[in-house]
Write a structure and sequence with these properties.
- This protein has helices at about 10-20, 35-40; strands at about 25-30, 45.
- With about 60 residues, the chain is an alpha+beta fold.
- The chain has one domain (about 10-55).
- The protein has a two-stranded parallel sheet with strand order 1-2.
Length: about 60
């Protein structure tokens, strides 16, 4: 099983990058797969539902 943190940026996001390359942009997304923050600086991305990097166990051992 591939872990979401080590999954490479998918082709769809690479294609999107080709469209915005050289342009001023900001991404507002509900995706929680971290694909945008893997590709762009975090100040260019708002994940309004957060992402899986911040999940924590309520009863950690």
């Amino acid at each position: 099983m591939t872990h979401w943190q080590t999954t490479p940026v998918r082709r769809l996001y690479q294609d999107l990058n080709a469209l915005v390359e050289g342009k001023d942009f900001f991404v507002l997304t509900t995706n929680q797969d971290t694909q945008f923050v893997k590709r762009y600086p975090e100040d260019k991305v708002a994940e309004i539902q957060e992402d899986h990097r911040f999940f924590q166990c309520a009863a950690c051992v």
